[in-house]
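Lab notes, practical 5.
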Amino acid sequence: MSQDQKERLYLFDTTLRDGAQTSGIDFSVAEKVVIAELLERLGVDYVEGGYPGANPTDTEFFSEKRTQSATFTAFGMTKRAGRSASNDPGLQGLLSAEADAICFVAKSWDYHVKVALGCSNEENLESITDSVTAAVNAGREAMVDCEHFFDGFKANPGYALACAKVAYDAGARWVVLCDTNGGTLPDEIKAIVAEVREVVPGDHLGIHTHDDTGQAVANALAAVDAGVRQIQGTLNGIGERCGNANLVTLIPTLMLKPQYTERFELGLSEAQLKDISAVSRTFDEMLNVSPNRHAPYVGETAFATKAGIHASAILKDPQTYEHVAPEEVGNKRRVLVSDQAGKSNLLGELARLGVEADKSDPRLDGLLAEVKQREAEGYAYEAADASFELLARRALGDVPSFYEVQSFRVMVERRHNALGELVSVSEAVVKVDIDGETRMSVAEGNGPVNALDVALRKDLGKYQSAIDGLELIDYKVRILNGGTGAVTRVLIESRDTRTHKRWFTIGVSSNIVDASFQALNDSITYALLKAEAA
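Output from the prediction step:
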């Protein structure tokens, strides 16, 4: 099959909605904005942002369009039975959201129609039709997630098919078949999808799978083989219970395995595929969780082999023992460390950040060695682009000496205030040198890190106006090893309120205050660097 004859597969990401149901995860609006940017960096076709009207966070998130190229999608219920579309607050809330598309979740199991909705089967079909029609008339791309579709099909095939057909007939661009409880097996998926294609064309069908049997990715691939052309999933497979289909595993499989590359194409470039390991790790750092070292394609050990017969063979011919080349997914081989390959990865990252560097520059060897040493100490630069850019520019001589920190001190005092209440008070003192002049600032704050932040930014002399819009918007701490002498990693997200640009900086130390100060100092230096460049 020629390139022109290949069928298009569409990637639909549900991290910001389905993934947000993961135990222990609660995205803020600011975090959703950053994740949406990360998804666009990866190149997915649809970003489902949440359920406007269901909670203040999602409502605010949909107050403006959050994507540049991906179709920004709102999620919500079909209209209630017994109400008109114009008189249903939930549906009207979806229509008023700043979204390109609306994904309606609809009951497709007659048992749920009776028990959960309390209406007749016919009324449910009417709700699907009217909701899709309302979205299409409002100029939105409409799609329907048929909830518990496979269970519903097993119980009542005729009704499940009727739900899918009325959605398509009403104008839904996609009818998505959902394995909501994750209990369906690949052979069942393939057989049922084949029957659905008798009433809905495959290029209008999508698949949404959960990982409760550990087969979400396999089920998604089985559905593609059976004819669906939209695949839903989440970054790193997060989701409620056991998670969702992992797009970070699905994307390389669809783009690198011949049985798919010969028939299909995705909207991702080879360069974006090479970025997938960095995207996966960045997302984990944002969640403040350790990346899965054994994750397919992107894990630290995905292309690692211990000493022995395999290692010996890999040294001679790596392609015989690796199912894909690690460089294709932005990963690296762990048996033989190639300085040239490491430098190639480094140059690619510098190019992405806009840092000009000649591959023959001898300073790159020192930078590469320093990055490796720092990563061994606990730094994770995939999630801290600003700190990495500063490290690189310093190695290449591109960072001016704006100021020099001479010392800092933090005091935490627990005492009774004037009202007799027991309170903790943090005070920080920071000394900086600017053009040979020492400036000392003292500040109190809500905790030692806030006190340091206020003190450091209190008086930077001629640079003060450049950081007037700077604010710290997120702060994450991870303990890298146990014990009282544990190494601590701090990740700080900052924002310039004037330009709305965000950046991440990192610090690592056995002292949490020292690690925090490293990240704070990098944040301010980065802001000054960008202000000077502007």
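Observations recorded by the TA: Residues 8-266 form a domain with the TIM Barrel fold (CATH 3.20.20.70). The chain is about 40% helix and 20% strand.
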